[in-house]
Amino acid sequence: MCVAARLPHHLVTTTGIRGWALVLVVVVFVVNGAAALARAPLTFAKAHRDGTSLSRWATGEAKAWLVTSAFGALLTLPLYALLRATPAWWLWAWGLFAVVTIGGVMATPLALRARSGPLAPAAPALAHRLRDVGRRGDLDIGGGVLVAGPRADRRCNAYVVGLGPTRRVVLEDALAAWPPALVDQVVAHELGHWRLGHTARRLPLTVITQLATFAIAAWALATAAVLGWAGVAAAGDPRSYPMILLLTPALALPARCLLAWRDRAQERAADRFALALLDAPADFAAMLERAADEGGAARQLSPWRRLTASHPPIDERALACTRSASII
User: What pLDDT, on the 0 to 100 scale, is given for residue 199?
Assistant: First the structure.
């Protein structure tokens, strides 16, 4: 609607604002405000169902608009500076995204550690069981088995962290309370990701996909039809902001689907690793059931959600487990 109504154009003409950076900041705030107004009936209906007062709902929406717009402006200003500075803006933007992606992968253990909160050593019996699981797969978890403190959202997760040949296993508090045989299956799955080198293998495809996406974006933003539709002569015009908001998810969708396909393939490979390592398909199936009942894992996915889901649905994984058991 902002593009069709030429809202940024009318805004600049009416206010007489000059300077591309200032125009961009104002356009970001106004377009985000229009988005907030479009969502208002839905957010108000939800707030009413939850018993939230009108004043509290309005205050929350105003704060969300201010924060979202401020961050949007901070992130968008460097992009438009590149768009205006060089036709090779997409290479510079890709390089920045690649650095952020690689840094994010390297910082993942720290992020997981911060999210988990205080850690405590697992009960000796549980730690011994999981070390034995590691030994069966010729994997050293000499870094220890730790349990994260209780959380309000009661996550049922586990992950493996550490550098070099030695790793440590971290269990969320809710998962540590599961029957030991089911915890073994979860940890075997996570050890499968480690043994199969999934983290390292994610990076090349991710970075290459980002490069392709930026190249396609550069072509689209230089197309006369796209620029004419937005009513601008160049993508670096701040008034193109709502057009870029519309194009971004459309251009990123193929990359999302490709990377999600890779993630699902890795999840299936980790499942097969756990099944081969412990040779207990009944326990693995029981673990999947518990993951659906207590962990919130989706049993089924719509065709659209399946395209971008990082994990196969539980029912599909359980069926693969049943087939594996029949082969064994």
Answer: 83
Q: Is 268 within a domain? A: no
pLDDT, tens digit, for every residue of 190-246? 999 988 988 888 889 999 999 999 999 999 999 999 898 888 889 999 999 999 988
Q: Is residue 47 part of a domain?
A: yes
Calculate the CA dihedral of residues 252, 269, 328, 286 and round it to 10 degrees: -80
Task: Tell me which residue range forms the domain holding 15.
Answer: 1-85
Please, which residues have CB within 8 angstroms of residue 72's CB and are 6 or more apart in sequence?
28, 32
* The overall pTM is greater than 0.85: no
Per the domain annotation, does 104 fall within a domain? Answer: no
For residue 265, being part of any structural domain is answered with no
DSSP 55-117: HHHHHHHHHHHHHHHHHHHHHHHHHHHHHHH-TTHHHHHHHHHHHHHHHHHHHHHHHHHHHH-
